[in-house]
């Protein structure tokens, strides 16, 4: 078990970067389970829950959000030096999130179109996951991750191991939930065949296609899925948008989108 020589409880921090706060709510929505967590660790920094000590040295730190400003760059390096073990949790921290869509456009042009004085905006041209800047010890995917993932990671870390992470596809979860396949039965674009489970097949269970909130699954075939989407009548730019969504900076999805664009260009479209 992770303890100090003084026998104290391990110190834990939860840090926020560019995000919607939804991943932090995974902690807060635990209810009574959060009290159990407080028995296992000393929560020294978690602004949304109360304690504020952003520069405290901790044994384990959870980081939500992506790097989007110069200040973020400085802060993430300081957190790395102050933390023994770092967990990037949520789609923004692991794959850039929705705000990383700026990576595929001219961010400066957007700022000029929206703000009267864009020079006052402190924003990088890109929005990037934590692993682009520091060593990450564990990634927990999801938008947001579920509480079992978070608690499982903490419990495993307390006992000196890493948690097992399910990487099977949302399609398998659909079968377990007895959800009708929207891709086959409804001809609806769905990212389930290339997305790892963790959401309980939430969207397909309500007749919607998967948005790939939990990032790429293992042994995925993005080219096959893109071909299926084309067969449904989707244009290349529409197919690209499915891969450039919540987990757009995941290498597997980023490369798939780039290949679609390249192939389309080669065909002269």
TrEMBL record:
Names of required cofactors: [3Fe-4S] cluster
Pfam family, one: Oxidored_q6
Domain of life, source organism: Bacteria
Keyword Iron-sulfur: yes
Keywords: 3Fe-4S, Iron, Iron-sulfur, Metal-binding, Oxidoreductase
GO molecular function: 3 iron, 4 sulfur cluster binding; oxidoreductase activity
Stretches assigned to the NADH:ubiquinone oxidoreductase-like 20kDa subunit domain: 20-156
Protein name: Sulfhydrogenase subunit delta
